[in-house]
Amino acid sequence: MKVTLGFDDTDSPLGNCTTHLAFSLLSILKEKGWKPLDFPRLIRNNPNVPFKTRGNGSVALTFLVPSSLNFEKIHNELSTWLFNRTADHEMTNPGFILLVGELGSELSSFAQRALIKVLTIDETISLLDHPSVYYSFKGTGQGLIGSLAAIGNELKNDFTYELLAYRIANNRGTKRRIDRESFIRLDDSSFQTFSSYDSDTGRIASVPNGPDPVLYGIRGESANLLISANSVIKQLEKIEGWCVFRTNQGTDEHLVNAFPSLEPYEVSLIEAKVVNEPDIIAGGHTILTLERSSDGSQFHALAYEPSKSFRSTVKELRPDDRLIVGGSIRGVSPSELPTFNIERLDVIEVAPFSRLVNPPCPSCNKRMESDGVNAGYKCKKCKIKDPSATKVPVFESRSLEKGRYLPPIGAHRHLTMPFSRYDLAKQKKTYSTPQWSDFLSIDFSHANKEHVDFE
Fold this sequence. Notes:
A hairpin with a 4-residue loop joins strand 9 (about 195-200) and strand 10 (about 205). The chain has 9 helices and 25 strands. It starts with a strand and ends in a 13-residue tail after the last strand. Helix 3 (about 105-115) packs across helix 5 (about 145-150). The longest helix has 14 residues, at about 20-30. The chain is elongated. The protein has helices at about 20-30, 70-85, 105-115, 120-130, 145-150, 180-185, 225-230, 255, 310-315, and strands spanning about 1-10, 35, 40-45, 55-65, 95-100, 135, 160-165, 195, 195-200, 205, 215-220, 240-245, 265-275, 280, 285-290, 300-305, 320-330, 340-350, 355, 370, 375-380, 385, 390-395, 405, 440. With about 450 residues, the protein is of the alpha+beta class.
């Protein structure tokens, strides 16, 4: 019998990690003799959801088990185990689902909508009202949405892998000790890794900053190659072990089915025309006004200061340039127009642009000065006056080229496809049913060997 476990929202801004709970749970299920049918799946859902903790990631685990098992008892025992290890925080509202068999196409549709929209608890519960589904939650139950989305997203198209290494308990909350050179070299090696190092800022993108149990995460195209890559990373602190997840990170999956929405928090792809020149606002963010091609409605578009060099591209935009912008409308705008956070920029037409400048002197060709309101212009050097002179257009040389532009790696969303993946993503990917050793390594001298009472 195929059984899938889905869970989400077990962490908080202060710590914990849903993938680390998966790592711990996998060690239990391995001891129970459950046979994996897939790698553990780490699914990143709509990155704009306002009540997410960090990366809006949820986990699904799929197994082949005897049909004689007492699934209700298993659900009760596992949900109790899970919730006892969930962060105690007002923002943490975990959900746990045990699905026996399949739920059908409506589950896949739900997962795809979870990538681009803000879904509700009510529509989630309506799908869970099924005899083959066992579920439980705490608080608002917000985690049920991500749990069901993870179960429904079987990554049948493009996917990548991430190997996550976990810190021992005594080290959590302290500064991570890592060998920078190990990660800088990764993306230039033959391991097919990506987004390990941001050369624009010098940041190691594989290493998080928060209090969670993750020491580092390396992303790549192959589980085997990630394990090989991990073996050459110089370890400066002990780890509990590591787990390889199959994931939609780095796939742009949220943008594949996006539509030109101006609804808050929805993932959107909008074709638009630039209305005005960009401006710099407080905080160093770059803002401009765009006009949606479909209906002429206007909205602000924003490139945040952390996007660094990406802001330089946005600053080069001029009126009548045509674009396709990927991102989302944020919930609260500082003006009467919606504000769109730019995640990806496609320049599809670069328009000629001219500025009005003072006219040249007919004698020396230098720019003349105004001779007063409605009095024309004069040349300070030649003393020539021309009361009928007006400003003249001068066309600006445009260095901006048509094409796709992304923020630097350190400012990517988890789902953002880096340029290094563009050719690889076109290839149809397959995988074999994994063995436990293909994705899980636990050092029980540094990790707790836990037990859950079910058979």
